[in-house]
């Protein structure tokens, strides 16, 4: 059988409701221009109800690439090590003869039991997940990118990250319509694209697997020209939030903590003050810049797609477009990827299978999760999906097969312990191991269970934006119970099963799945 190509595109912090194809399918005019993503949607299958199973970056990428829920891989926050015993997509691809290439990053901290405490990988936010071959590293410390910028003759300031400040010495840090100090030809999106094209051209038509990662539209929310001025703030969707931060905060102790504690400085270099104090004009400007960063990525993807077209590889390549997580963008008076709201967890997923045929251009309504990407790739390539994997292959759904035993709810988790920055466990009076929540959500209801805080329950038909918590309402008591039981059953069903199918006996070791 001929070897196949796979291009896995993973952007950072891209919300599902910023996918023009989905907006148009709802009869809404798109405020965002992404012609190359549009092409992918026309030729592939777009998944409407897709979530990351956890946030932020490190945990989300661990789930994406291991196919495991957070409760099983336990890399619960950025900088928390990933247990070396877990297989991942890179390792699994090697078992079927692929040398998986990676452009970008995985934000993986190594298992400390496999190395020394002096290992410099423990000095950074994350490194490359074992099994992948880096052909365009961003980690550690973005050295690969900044070295490329300097090599191309652009003078780096003493503090390298200042290239992402707005142009002009008099710029006020915060949401801005000014361009970044780094020109688009030296942006990080251009860097990743150059590395991808260098790798693909080096393959010279030989089969490949490429994980192509992009840092954007991750903050800082400052775009290079001309993308900084591509969108008008007044054309952006208005934020969805309560009348004021105090009203929003009253919903739950965790919501109050984040409304009070999120700082603008994490999203705009040098900015001060709380994100909850941003007015609507500032939020719309931030969203306009966010869209500019997205269109820059789309233009970059166009270069990659053009090369695949020119070399006759477009029709031989499985292309998957997704993100690690979403972004609150001021909704619910929040910034970042946190908490339990849809804006942080609903993400894009588009799969272009060259053999999809009449399914091209369709929108799939089934509930899908980031843990499904790994088994889908292995299934498509004819590999074996590890038994421990919590996800399921999406290949049947892409081909249009209806699966009677498909999941009936979405599931995701968030571990909100933080030992370096905001430290919610101290403010909320919790032990770090009590700082967790899980969500069970379908088209009707959303239940949020906390290890040591009150639950939340939303009626999504009547309250799609999740403003009214019904967990303590007597009329909803039976439903709250039912969804709590769903959450418990889900956790029991997905408890680690790496070795549970092995049996020893009179005739030695056997494998027994049923």
Automatic annotation (TrEMBL):
Keyword ATP-binding: no
Record carries keyword DNA-binding: no
SUPFAM superfamilies named in the record: Alkaline phosphatase-like
Residue span(s) of domain Sulfatase N-terminal: 4-382
Domain of life, source organism: Bacteria
PANTHER family: IDURONATE 2-SULFATASE (PTHR45953)
Any single GO CC term annotated in Swiss-Prot or TrEMBL for this entry: cytoplasm
Keywords tagged on the record: Hydrolase, Metal-binding
Record InterPro entries: Alkaline_phosphatase_core_sf, HdlasePehA, Sulfatase_N
Protein name (record): Sulfatase
Originating species: Pseudaminobacter soli
GO MF: metal ion binding; sulfuric ester hydrolase activity
């Amino acid at each position: 059988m001929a070897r196949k190509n796979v291009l896995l595109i993973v952007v950072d912090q891209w919300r599902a409701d910023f996918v023009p194809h989905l907006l148009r399918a709802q009869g809404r005019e798109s405020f965002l221009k992404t012609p190359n993503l549009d092409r992918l949607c026309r030729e592939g299958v777009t998944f409407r109800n897709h979530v990351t199973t956890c946030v932020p970056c490190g945990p989300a990428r661990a789930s994406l690439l291991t196919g495991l829920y957070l409760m099983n891989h336990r890399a619960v926050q950025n900088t928390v090590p990933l247990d070396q015993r877990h297989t991942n997509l890179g390792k699994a691809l090697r078992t079927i003869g692929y040398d998986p290439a990676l452009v970008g990053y995985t934000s993986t901290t190594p298992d400390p039991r496999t190395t020394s405490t002096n290992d410099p990988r423990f000095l950074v936010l994350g490194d490359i997940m074992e099994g992948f071959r880096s052909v365009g590293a961003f980690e550690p410390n973005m050295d690969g990118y900044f070295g490329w910028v300097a090599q191309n003759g652009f003078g780096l300031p003493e503090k390298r990250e200042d290239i992402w400040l707005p142009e002009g010495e008099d710029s006020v840090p915060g949401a801005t319509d000014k361009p970044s100090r780094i020109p688009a030809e030296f942006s990080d999106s251009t860097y990743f694209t150059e590395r991808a094209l260098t790798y693909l051209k080096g393959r010279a038509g030989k089969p490949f697997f490429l994980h192509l990662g992009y840092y954007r539209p991750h903050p800082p929310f400052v775009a290079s020209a001309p993308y900084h001025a591509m969108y008008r703030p007044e054309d952006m969707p208005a934020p969805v939030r309560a009348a004021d931060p105090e009203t929003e905060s009253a919903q739950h102790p965790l919501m109050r903590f984040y409304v009070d504690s999120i700082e603008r400085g994490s999203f705009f270099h040098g900015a001060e003050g709380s994100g909850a104090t941003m007015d609507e004009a500032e939020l719309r400007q931030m969203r306009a810049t966010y869209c500019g960063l997205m269109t820059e990525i789309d233009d970059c993807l166009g270069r990659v797609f053009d090369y695949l077209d020119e070399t006759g590889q477009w029709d031989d390549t499985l292309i998957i477009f997704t993100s690690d997580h979403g972004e609150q963008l001021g909704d619910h008076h929040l910034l970042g990827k946190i908490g339990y709201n849809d804006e942080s967890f609903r993400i894009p997923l588009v799969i272009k299978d060259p053999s999809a045929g009449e399914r091209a251009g369709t929108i799939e309504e089934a509930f899908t999760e980031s843990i499904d990407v790994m088994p889908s790739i292995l299934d498509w390539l004819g590999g074996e999906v590890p038994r421990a994997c919590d996800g399921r292959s999406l290949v049947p759904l892409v081909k249009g097969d209806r699966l009677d035993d498909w999941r009936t709810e979405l599931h995701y988790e968030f571990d909100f312990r933080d030992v370096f920055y905001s430290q919610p466990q101290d403010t909320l009076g919790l032990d770090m191991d009590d700082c967790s929540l899980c969500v069970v959500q379908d088209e009707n209801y959303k239940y949020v269970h906390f290890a040591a805080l009150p639950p939340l329950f939303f009626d999504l038909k009547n309250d799609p934006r999740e403003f009214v918590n019904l967990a303590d309402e007597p009329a909803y008591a039976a439903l709250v119970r039912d969804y709590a039981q769903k959450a418990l059953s889900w956790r029991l069903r997905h408890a680690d099963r790496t070795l549970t199918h092995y049996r020893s006996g009179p005739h030695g070791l056997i494998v027994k799945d049923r």
